[in-house]
Amino acid sequence: MYKEFYGLRANPFNVNPDPRYLFLTRHTEEALACLTYGIQSRKGFVLLTGEVGTGKTTLINKLLEWLRLQQVATAFIFNSRLNTTQFLDYMMADFGIPSDSKAKSQILLRLYNWLLDRYRAGETAVLIVDEAQNLTEEVLEEIRMLTNLETFTEKLLQIVLVGQPELEQKLKQPQLRQLRQRLTLRAKTHALTLEETKAYIQQRLRIAGSNGQQIFDPEAVVAIHRYSNGIPRVVNLLCEHCLVSAFVDQQKVIGPAVVEFVARDFDLADGNAARAMMTSSPAAGQTTGQSKLDLADTLRSLANLADRFRDDEKDLPKERKL
């Protein structure tokens, strides 16, 4: 509803992990380079970790976009709460490998032959598992066993495990030491610095169609960084609701007061709550849980804005009321 008012073609702060909006910080570039190198060099196992909301899924979507342009076969498992049978079924279906048998031995044999055919043709296949901190030990062990699908010199299947810092802790367990030893490359996502937050907001506005006119006052950006702790998902949340709030008040430039109002509304009093909001429940960071959180927060915020609008309307002369 505010896009025309601010001269935008699209919503710049949508929470969806759109790869067009990937912001390349030094850490993000290093992580993307690590992932692509690991896949191209057939290293077998690559680990990507980062705090909730720091852009892991957006980065993975960018990687998937590149892999598909290279015509690399991919399987992307985003629901990690699967048992071993469900995991193998999902992987085979996403790779597009037909399998009539439900016998594990037959599934693995068909997968091996398919991978071998691709290898002989000079092609590779990539399995990406998101939210891997939720995988059971049994499924993690099954994933480790998939790395045994290899030739004498190279791995046939490239695997990327993606998860929150809890995944690193999980992999330190003695019973998972074999899996940990097979991790050849590790990459991480990080929170944004103040300068990166400024550039992040500008880039998203530019991609959404901004002509360069100032929308966020410099002091407002400083406040956004402080309240968000530089976590991109929280930056998006604050910016989105700042745009809605300022639009209701017909403010072309968003100042720090608007940011503070929105931050209070989301209980981001000192910035520390930004991380708490992202990690307060076991489902934090998952698509379904986040969608419910965003919907509830949006409804609450819009209700508050409507109350403010009605209060302002009471003070208008009768002939100017709607």
Tell me what portion of residues adopts beta-strand conformation.
Answer: 5-15%
By secondary-structure content and strand pairing, the structural class works out as alpha/beta
Helix fraction, binned, reads 40-55%
Second CATH tier, the architecture of the largest domain: 3-Layer(aba) Sandwich
Reading off the top of the CATH hierarchy, the class of the largest domain is best stated as: Alpha Beta
Morphology call: elongated
Terminal CA distance = 18 Å
The mean pLDDT is 86
The largest sheet is:
5 strands, parallel
> What number of domains?
2
* CATH homologous superfamily caption of the largest domain: P-loop containing nucleotide triphosphate hydrolases
Strand order, main sheet: write it out: 2-3-4-1-5
What does this structure look like?
The chain has 322 residues and is of the alpha/beta class. It folds into two domains: 24-188, Rossmann fold, CATH 3.40.50; 192-320, no CATH class. It contains 13 helices and five strands. The chain has helices spanning 26-40, 56-69, 84-95, 104-120, 137-146, 165-171, 177-181, 194-207, 218-228, 232-248, 256-265, 272-279, 287-314, and strands at 45-49, 73-77, 125-129, 157-163, 185-188. The protein has a five-stranded parallel beta sheet with strand order 2-3-4-1-5, sandwiched between helices. Helix 9 (218-228) runs parallel beside helix 11. The longest helix is centred in the C-terminal third of the chain and has 28 residues, at 287-314. The chain is elongated.
